[in-house]
Amino acid sequence: MDNNREFLMRRLHSLLGVIPIGLFLTQHLIVNHFATQGVEAFNQAAHFMANLPFVIFLEIFVIYLPLMYHAFYGLYIAFTAKNNPGHYSYMRNLLFVAQRYTGVFLVVFIAWHIFETRFQVAIGAGEADFNMMENILSNPLMFAFYVVGVLSATFHFANGLWSFLVTWGVTVSAKAQRYSTYFTLLVFIVLSIIGIRALFAFI
Amino acid sequence: MGEAAKTVIFEIERQNSTDESSYWEKFELPYRANMNVISALMEIRRNPVNMDGKKTTPVNWDMNCLEEVCGACSMVINGKARQSCTALVDQLEQPIRLQPMRTFPVVRDLIVDRSRMFDSLKKVKAWVPIDGTHDLGEGPRMPERKRQWAYELSKCMTCGVCLEACPNVNDKSDFIGAAPLSQVRLMNAHPTGSMNRDERLNAIMGEGGLADCGNSQNCVESCPKGIPLTTSIAALNRDVSIQMFRNFFGSDHMVD
C-alpha cells in the first residue's frame, strides 16, 4: 500500500478518459451536429453552450484539467512503450499502437483547435459561431486536418472505452472482451458519422 | 533421391558476453527429416563452421526438457519469441533467424538471464505460505471444477515469451509482465493461498505492477501453454478495484 502512486495515476488516467473527457467529446460532436440544420441552429446551440452559468468553472473542471492530465500522462505512457506491430501483428496489438499514435496526434490537434477557437474568443479576436468554423474549414488542408482530428478522437475514445472496461475489471472473459470490441466499434462508427457530417456542413 | 543435397540456412545473432555488441553469423547445414531448431544447433555445435567455411565458436543456447514444459530454450525465431525445441524446421521460413530474447540481459549468444521473472514472483508473493510452529493440518478442499481450471494457470513455465512479446515490458518501464500476474491469480484461487490474497493484490498495485498493462494482448497470443493471461489480468483488475476501495475507505474484511 506504500508505493501505489503509479497505480492510482494510471487508474485516474483511465477514468478521466471516459468521465468526463469521453462524455464531453460526445456532447461536443452532438452540439456540432446542429450545423447540419443550418447557420441559425448552430449559432443558437453554440450561444447556449457558451453562456451556461458558471461556464468557466465547467470548462476548467470538466475540460481543461482532466484533458491536460490525460494528455500529459498519456504522452508519458505512449513513450514508455516499445511498439512491436511488425512481428506481433495481432489485432489488439495494432489497436494498442494506433491508440498511442492517435493520442500523440490528438495532443497536437486539440492544442491547435483550442488555440484557433476558444483562445481567440478569450482574447476577443472572434466569436465562436458558424462563421468562425466556416472560415477555418474553407482551407482544404485545415479541413483534412480536422477530419483526421475528429476520426482520431472518436477512435481514441472508442478504443479507450474498450480498455477502460478491462482496466476496471468489467469485461473479464475473452468473450466479454470480444463483445465489447463490437460495442466500441459501433461507438466509433456512430460518433464518426456525427462528427464528419458536422464538418461537411461547414463547407 | 537423386537431387542435390538439401540444406538449411540459419542466421544467428551472436554475442560473446553481456556487455559486448552483437554480430550475425550464417550457417548452412545438411537437411534431415523432422529436424528442429535444437537439433540444428546441436549440428552447429558438432561442426562449428560458418557459411564462409571458417571455423567459429559453437553457438551457445540453453535447453533442458526438449518437450516444451521447461521454457529454458526460449528464443526469438523469425521475429517471434517461442521455444526452439518445438520449432520444426519444416514449418519455418528460410533463412531461419535466431535471436536472443533481448527483454532479458544476454549472457552469451542465445542464452539470456531470466532472473527478473523469479524476482517478480518473489515480489508478488507467488507462493502459498504453509509453515507454522506446529502442524497446521490439512487445508480447505478445492472444488474439482476449480482445480481443473487452476491447472491451466499452473502450466506457466516462466519461459519469458509473454514478456518478450509485450510492448510495455522494456528498459524504459518496470512492468513485471503477464506471467507473474497470472501466478497471483493462481495463488489467490488456491484455498489456502487465498488466506493471503490481499497481500498479493497490494503487491501488484505497487510499482511496475498490474496498472502498467496496456492491453496489447500479445501475451495471450504468444503464450506457448495457451494460458488465458489477459483473462487473468482483467480478473485481477476487478479484484484490485475492490481492494483499492477497501484500502481507501476502510473495511472490516481483510480477506474475503
Automatic annotation (TrEMBL), chain B:
GO terms for biological process: respiratory electron transport chain; tricarboxylic acid cycle. Its EC number is 1.3.5.1. Residues 147-175 form the 4Fe-4S ferredoxin-type domain. Keywords: 2Fe-2S, 3Fe-4S, 4Fe-4S, Iron, Iron-sulfur, Metal-binding, Oxidoreductase, Tricarboxylic acid cycle. InterPro entries: 2Fe-2S_ferredoxin-like_sf, 4Fe4S_Fe-S-bd, 4Fe4S_Fe_S_CS, Beta-grasp_dom_sf, Helical_ferredxn, SDH/FRD_Iron-Sulfur, Succ_DH/fum_Rdtase_Fe-S, Succ_DH/fum_Rdtase_N. PROSITE patterns: 4FE4S_FER_1, 4FE4S_FER_2. It comes from the Bacteria. GO terms for molecular function: 2 iron, 2 sulfur cluster binding; 3 iron, 4 sulfur cluster binding; 4 iron, 4 sulfur cluster binding; electron transfer activity; metal ion binding; succinate dehydrogenase (quinone) activity. Its cofactor is [4Fe-4S] cluster; [3Fe-4S] cluster; [2Fe-2S] cluster. NCBIfam families: dhsB (TIGR00384), PRK08640.1 (NF006391). Belongs to the succinate dehydrogenase/fumarate reductase iron-sulfur protein family. This is succinate dehydrogenase. The gene is sdhB.
